[in-house]
Amino acid sequence: MLHYVSDDEKLTEHEPWNITTAAFDQLLNYLEAEGYHTVTFEDIERGNRYEKEIIITFDDCPKHLWDYAIPELQKRNMKAVFYLLGGHIGGYNYWNTESGLSRIDLMDAEQIAKLSEVGMEVGSHGYHHVMMEELNVEEATEQITKSKEKLEGIINKEILSIVYPYGSLPPKYNMLVPQAGYKYGLSVYTPWESKYAIRRWLYDNTDTLSTLKEKLSSNYGLYRSFADKWRIWKPALLRAMYKKYSKLKSAFK
Ligand SMILES: [Zn+2]
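Above: the input record for the complex with zinc ion. Below: its predicted structure, written as tokens.
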């Protein structure tokens, strides 16, 4: 999971979402050296599979990806999937600026069409950058269908996958997302993985060759299947332990 790739000093406040071009190079160099194929969901649908494969994803999709990241991928014959907000085409990162961070311009319709023309895949990031778990079924349906229609109108091609903003799963996602016509849904941390709640990992400026190797290992997948559950269980367990401790404490008074 990637977002912004820029050496602009003003973007350092967007870390870990912004990575330097050097960090981006480190990632691509490693994948190339290890013989990874960068695939898209279209490849998976068509059965174009490889022993070593990876899906590189970009959320939000600023205009500046055309300055370095995309040309660099093209140079190396690599592909990625780009997730855009249907309601903010040619807009900006309003959800960041609302919390005091600097403005970053997002791709316009022409740039989105170009992504598809050069062989990159376009995906939906919903209509607005909202926490989908806070929506009811009708509202969530609107977010996921409106963005798909809007983007398909621009690229003249079927949108296969959606990335939920903040990795926040919409209600009844295992039903709503395929109903809207998507084949895949991507989250970040998810206790129970499914085609519509695919786990992802963040690559940022702090990653080294050894953390990268670790994150690409099957052990890491196993670790995440436990760690993501623990993220949900931890508060509940701590509450239960605290209750028990308080009872014990009062019993010995
Ligand atoms: Zn986002």
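Notes for the reader.
The chain has a mean pLDDT of 94.
Residues 186 and 198 are 5 Å apart (CA to CA).
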